[in-house]
Each structure stands twice: as structure tokens, then as C-alpha cells.
Amino acid sequence: METLFKVDLNKPMDKQDIPGHNRWHPDIPAAFAVNPGESFRMECLEWTDGQIKNNDDPSDIRKVNLERVHVLSGPVYVNGVEPGDLLVVDILDIGTFGEQLWGFNGIFAKENGGSFLTDYYPQAAKSIWDFHGIYTTSRHIPNVKFAGLIHPGLMGVAPSQELLNEWNRREKELIASNPERVPPLANPPTEESVVLGNVTGSNFDRIAKEGARTVPPRENGGNCDIKDLSKGSRVYFPVFVEGAKLSVGDLHFSQGDGEITFCGGIEMSGWIELRVDVIKGGMAKYQIKTNPVYQPGPVNPHYNEYIVFQGVSVEPNGKQTYLDANVAYRNACLNAIDFLKTQGYTGEQAYMLLSAAPVQGHLAGVVDIPNTCATVGIPKEIFTKNILPL
Predict the structure, then answer these.
(1) Are residues 270 and 153 in the same domain?
(2) What is the pLDDT of residues 235-290, one digit of tens each?
(3) For residues 318-357, b (16+ Cβ closer than 10 Å) or e, as one string?
(4) What Cα–Cα distance (Å) separates residue 169 from each residue in 25, 156, 189, 194?
(5) Do both 234 and 274 map to the same domain?
(6) Domain for residue 300, yes or no?
(7) 194 and 208 in contact (C-beta within 8 Å)?
């Protein structure tokens, strides 16, 4: 299969022969074009563009430049695709580079990005994971070994100018509601560390000022971090611009549901093979107008026995919330971490393990007022010792 987007692991994204991008904007030019029905391979740099090193020092996590993320491969222009169509994307295969058989997970410092549990774990931490075929281990989180399910954390199409303007409007409004919050409520457009393919001059300045950050998921797909979206999966993307302009990146060797540390799956560079097709007029025909639809593939790590931790939507200070799924899931994670600390792990190690391993997160109940119930399930088999209470 032909590789239509190549990367040099020794160069940052803006120095590649064909640079990718790290903002969403309809005017970022396509890196290449394909026809519906065509299959191709793309290579991807890890999401921080080489900022994180394979060592034991978390200072690179603490000081990471988040204006640089995510560096994406693409965009891919699909000939004949128009707004109102559905772009059909099949993930045929995905894998690691033989010359870089490691990845990383980390907890971002509260003052620089934070994380889901940032009020409990505000300091930066890092774990390096080595790849052994389908398995991974970490010198920083001992006594675990598990099979990875490699997947793209981020895949999306370009927004229209109207949709981009709406993103920037609503996120600006949210930021204004608490502009001094640490970490911030959202990330506005910024001209720092922008990568826009081969755009130059006044167009570069204009796009940099308007381009949306790639950090959150939005109507175009984007940074959804769906761990089951691996080989054999299919995605139906609503199309907002001619050619769709598909981009992909943020590859993970493995991830727990929620990617809760933010630097959250086992981040890696690698390659992905895709096939694209089109359903003309598909957005109206199937009422897929505002978000993609996903069909997970048949490949999954074979773990059947879990130890499951429950959380309900009561704040730690005893304040009762009304069906707050965020609070319930946070409590389930904290309960799991407290248990893992009895097994010899630090809180930071347990937190990173929940984010990196094939952990199952679920909403168990969202109707029984006033408490939502959420669960976090950890596969028992990933541990090299019995962790069940005796």
C-alpha cells in the first residue's frame, strides 16, 4: 500500500517535506488527494511533536508546550466529496515504527493543562512504556503487562467557516465566564507554535488567528479518544467542506476509557492505513448532521475478568449533586486509585495506569435521582500478582 504522508521521526512537523497541521480551519490546504474507494497509508508523529523523551525525568511533561498539540497528518482531499455528504473511513490497519518501540503517558501539571483529577494530582508525572509485539510494560509502573489496542486518538474533517466561527464564539463565551480559572475552561485560538502545512504570508497570519485548537472533540470528530476505534473500525463523518479534508493523529498504543490524565493514552508515533468512500447526500439521508457515527472493529484485547469500582455523584465535601456523571466517574476513579495504593502503587502510578491500560468506564445509571452511578473496571489479568481482596 502506498504511503501518501510520510514523516521523519527526527524532525518536527513544520520541518517535514510535507508538513501537517495543528489547527482546524477550512483553508488549510490538502497534503494530497485520493479518490473514493482508494486505500492508502499515513505516518503520524506523536501528538506533542517530539517534546517528550524516553527518560525518567518528568520535567518535559511539566514544561510541555501545549500550543503545539496536536500535530496531525493531512489533510486528505477526497475527490468528488461535497458538503452534505458522509465521508466513510475504514481503518484497515495501524501499527508502530520498528525504530521507536516505546510510548509515554503523563499527568500534566495543574498550571499547564491539568487533568481529570488535577485537584488531587496537580504535579507532573511521567511513565514510559516499552512495546513487545502486542504487549507493553513500564519501568515506572511495575508488575503490569497488557495487550494494547492501537488506535488514533484524533481523526476528523475540516469545519466550514461558519462552523469554525461557531466553535470560537461558544468557547470564547465559556472562557469569559471564568477567565482566571486554572486550568482554563477552554483553549482559544493562539498564533503561538502554529503549523499550517505549506501556508505562508498573510494567509498564514489569518488562519493562525482563527484556527481552532485541536484539543477537544467537536462536530467534525476530532480528539474523541475512543479506544475501541482500531483496525476494522468504520467512521461516518459529516462533511462540511469540499473534499472533506480528513486528518489523523494522536496515535495511542493503549488507553483506558476517559483518557483521564489528559496526556492520557500511551502516546506514540506510528502509521495507519485507511480506505475512504462517500455516501452522497448522506447527512440528510441518515440524519448524521452534527457528529460522526462509529462502528468499532472486531479486534480487542481478550480480557474477561475485571475488578470494578463504583462512584456516585456526591462531592467529596458531602455536597449532593443532581445526576452529575462527571462527579460520579471522578469518584469511581478515585476509589480505584485508593484501592491500587493498597497494592503498593503510588497515587500517581495508579492514576497513570487507569489512563493507559484497557480500563472499561461505564455509566451504570443516570435516572435514579439524585445520584448517577459510574464504574471503572480494571482487567485482573494485567497484573502479575493477585490483587483481589482476600
Answers:
(1) yes
(2) 999 999 999 999 999 999 999 999 999 999 999 999 999 999 999 999 999 999 99
(3) eeebebbbebbbbbbbbebbebbeeeebebbbbbbbbbbb
(4) 15, 20, 11, 20
(5) yes
(6) no
(7) yes
Please write the tens of the pLDDT for every residue from 88-126: 999 999 999 999 999 999 999 999 999 999 999 999 999
Rounded Cα distance between 222 and 220, Å, is 6
Contact between residue 87 and residue 278 where contact means Cβ atoms under 8 Å apart? yes
Looking up residue 317, the CATH number of its domain turns out to be 3.10.28.20
Distance of CA 302 to the CA centre of its chain: 22
Domain span at residue 141 reads 2-295
On whether both 326 and 217 belong to a single domain, the answer is no
Exposure of 194 in the CB half-sphere (CA atoms within 13 A): 24
Among residues 233, 267, 295, which one ends one of the domains? 295
